[in-house]
Amino acid sequence: MAELPRLNGVIGALQQGRHALTTFTPADVEAAVALTTAKYDAVVYEMEHNAYDIRAFRDCLQYMLNRRQIAQSGSLAPAVAPFARIPPNGGEKAQFHAKQVLDISAMSSRPITRSAPAAIRA
Length: 122
Hints:
This protein is α/β, with parallel strands linked by helices. It has helices at 9-15, 29-35, 54-63, 67-73, 96-103, 116-121; strands at residues 22-25, 42-46, 81-85, 109-110. The chain has a four-stranded parallel β-sheet. Strand 1, helix 2 (29-35) and strand 2 (42-46) form a beta-alpha-beta unit. The termini are far apart.
């Protein structure tokens, strides 16, 4: 049986001993369309220092579905893995940000933390 490709291109690159190339962008549909065919392993949608707009992020994920790439590869693994950088998980314990982006299929969410216990809570 043929080995299935990794859904997350960053993990796949690291397993192959390569550097994982990632870029950052706001949650913008035009950027999502352009980055779908870019030669990156992942894209991080910056929603910590830009507006946290879960609907815009959802739209970006939808526009990253490249039908040609899916048909040619025979896999649903995206060519560029979508990640989300979310607002800090500080004293307010706003864990809903991480839950929302993971619920709509982000492959990773990155809250900013200042300590190991805070990272575990995040």
